[in-house]
Amino acid sequence: MSSPAVGDHGDSTHRSAESGSVGVTVNGQRREVPAGGSAHDLVVALGLVGRPLAVEVNGRVVPRARLADCMLEAESVIEIVTLVGGG
What we know:
8% of the residues lie in helices and 32% in strands. It has one helix and six strands, in the order E-E-E-H-E-E-E. The two termini are 18 Å apart. 16% of the residues are buried.
């Protein structure tokens, strides 16, 4: 699955103090996300709200109802899987 870019800055490291962002990995791609953001914020930024999906953060599945409570930290590894219909 290909995800839309969310502040992709390639080789950025841990925390960018001047921009208030942290480096995470989303579906294998390095990205910068706002510091203090949640998994729900990431889903919104990726334009995936309302779509059937599963989110895993650092190896743990996060139930949809808990996405807003799951705060992303520097170096978090996030996997987002969406369902694709077809026939």
